[in-house]
Amino acid sequence: MQFVLEHTAGNARTGKIFTDHGIFKTPVFMPVGTQGSVKAITQKSLEEIGTEIILSNTYHLYLRPGIEILHQAGGLHRFMSWGHPILTDSGGYQVFSLSDLRDINEEGVQFRSHLDGSLHTFTPESVVDIQRYIGSDITMVLDECTPYPCEKEYASQSNELTLRWAERCRNRFQSSEGLYEHSQALFGVVQGSVYPDIREHSAKVLADMDFNGYAIGGLAVGEPSDQMYEMIEVCNGVLPTNKPRYLMGVGTPENLLEAIERGVDMFDCVLPTRNGRNAQLFSQKGVVNITNAQYKDDFTPVDIECECFTCRNYTRAYIRHLFMVKEILGLQLATHHNLYYYQWLMQNARKAISTGIFENWKREQLNLLHQEIQLTT
Amino acid sequence: MQFVLEHTAGNARTGKIFTDHGIFKTPVFMPVGTQGSVKAITQKSLEEIGTEIILSNTYHLYLRPGIEILHQAGGLHRFMSWGHPILTDSGGYQVFSLSDLRDINEEGVQFRSHLDGSLHTFTPESVVDIQRYIGSDITMVLDECTPYPCEKEYASQSNELTLRWAERCRNRFQSSEGLYEHSQALFGVVQGSVYPDIREHSAKVLADMDFNGYAIGGLAVGEPSDQMYEMIEVCNGVLPTNKPRYLMGVGTPENLLEAIERGVDMFDCVLPTRNGRNAQLFSQKGVVNITNAQYKDDFTPVDIECECFTCRNYTRAYIRHLFMVKEILGLQLATHHNLYYYQWLMQNARKAISTGIFENWKREQLNLLHQEIQLTT
């Protein structure tokens, strides 16, 4: 994996990341394909709307279909018929949020599957091995994502464990090889809750370990947006400029623009897909709650400015009807539109950075977003 | 609407039906879009797999979105963005099967909505009017679909009522006009349960009323296949050869081939879509129950002979995984494949008829279909 920085505008930056499954441009938004499928959309449609990389979840793939099937298939790319880059998380986040967690100790975490209660252990080494079986282009270290709020004492101790785990992951990664004749990269994860000094320390130690890129984890877990933005600034003040920076699990269009302004390159979030399935459609003017009665005879597109398949072919009235009668097509059209909008936002952010107008463009977008109902994190 | 007969092979026949929304070739299979959407597939994909006409349900559309919205939209074609022909049933079948039926009398049927218990009445005249608002290219008369088994006395009385209703529908249709500057057609429906003499009488009386086409209703309601085939023969022995014949709600691939051999031109059925969503995939060799454990590491397509989007891009192992983890994409891929297979079957039936090899081709297909698990009605 290679990262090439192209343009900067203040702290905002554009670049390209080269992988054996192709190039993706940054800032980038990665749709979430938790179980080897971005919900309610085909891989072909993902390509058509300009998706260059997706994210998938190690925890879920490890449980189903399991690494044996993925190995037999020749890795996740071939299993799910996606020829472009894939990033996988380490599974840590889902262990802490979904499973019946039994024990976290120096060695790793023991947990019970949220599906059948079966007992499993993730260690820094095993999550590297699992991601070798998955064959993702970008893999992540095992970390503990602290909740919000979190006592400083706990945040500090937890971060030290995360740092020791990061080193073990790196060592395992360096002493092992990919299984499918393409190279893989490994990112470290900065933790430290909302404490600037812990974040700074975390970023420094990880930077010295020389990962291929750095994620900022443990944010968007309930803290106010301003604190999230402050933490991004602290981390990016320390992290090397010549490596990509990935803000995990974020967020709203507004969050993305604020984070891009502060130097973040990569994002993933379930918001466009999950909210789409819950009848919330994004537009340049804010969120359209499509089941509202006001749309029942509104024969205009969701977003008059949007050129996506949904907006070129269907009206608000029809999409509202589909949601009211629980037709699957409603989920498909909403997902398609929302992901298109997120790709549109990233594409235009990159254009604004490279042409030196990012600050003005961003202000304009935020003003527009506040014209209709604004979504809060 | 105009029907042009092209080739015959025994009683089997090919033809073309011309409507203001385009031509469709017969024998034709119409995917079912109950509520203005064929479940889990876009209109664009329907086009791509060669769908030339779809069916929608008057009962459902009348309840939601309602005729006022459909009228404002400019009819169902524009509401759902489908520029090709649409056939609607009369709503009678759903009144008898879904609603809390209150009263059937000479005037019509009074029923309670299955959604909210609200009280409604369908008369022969009102279902014509509703279908005028919907704007379907082919509309159907109100009929009573008798259950199976059904006493002969009841079947006969019911059929007489259906015939009187058919005449009232025709009169209303002739004295009214379409609302959207395209012409509409009206089909009569032959009833009579499994009684040849009632079927024959029904077909004769309807033939004299000179409809644009004739449906054979009240079959595939639980009777043995052989009785269904016998009734088709009785009806088609009476119905005029220069009008299309539509066998309502049928059926399996085998049913379709047997009915085509007996001179049926049009079909609709929820089987490919509903069974697809229940993990049953059709193939030239029978039904693949994709959740079976045997497919978990089967990295071949659902049907090696099939050229559909699903089979060109995805393996049985992946589709099985999607169903096991309840991903919406599984429903999309199964629906796409099954509808493609039904279109493939019709296309090849037409080819076999026009080249004079229908009998052999049909026998070959039936043999193939019995190689794997065979679906029974």
| Largest interface: pair, residues per side | A-B, 38 and 38 residues
Q: In whole angstroms, how far apart are the ends of chain A?
A: 32 Å
Q: Averaging pLDDT over every residue of chain A, what do you get?
A: 96
Helix content of chain A: 40-55%
Beta-strand fraction estimate of chain A: 15-25%
Helix-strand category of chain A: alpha/beta
Q: What is the β-strand count of chain A?
A: 16
Query: How many strands, what sense, and barrel or not for the largest sheet of chain A?
Result: 6 strands, parallel
Which word captures the global form of chain A? globular
Number of helices of chain A: 15
Q: What is the radius of gyration of chain A?
A: 20 Å
- Record the strand order, biggest sheet of chain A: 4-14-13-12-11-10
User: Could you name the ranges of chain A where pLDDT drops below 50 across 5 or more consecutive residues?
Assistant: none
The oligomeric state is: homodimer
Structure description:
- 2 copies of one chain form a homodimer.
- Chain A has 15 helices and 16 strands.
- In chain A, helix 10 (253-261) packs antiparallel against helix 15.
- In chain A, strands 4-14-13-12-11-10 form a 6-stranded parallel sheet. A 3-stranded antiparallel sheet of chain A has the order 1-2-3.
- Chain A has helices spanning 43-48, 58-63, 67-73, 76-80, 92-97, 124-134, 152-174, 196-208, 225-238, 253-261, 271-277, 309-313, 316-324, 328-354, 358-369; strands at residues 2-9, 12-19, 22-26, 28-30, 54-56, 86-88, 100-104, 109-112, 119-122, 138-140, 185-190, 213-216, 245-247, 266-268, 280-283, 286-289.
- Chain A is an alpha/beta fold and 377 residues long.
- The interface between A and B is large, with 38 and 38 residues.
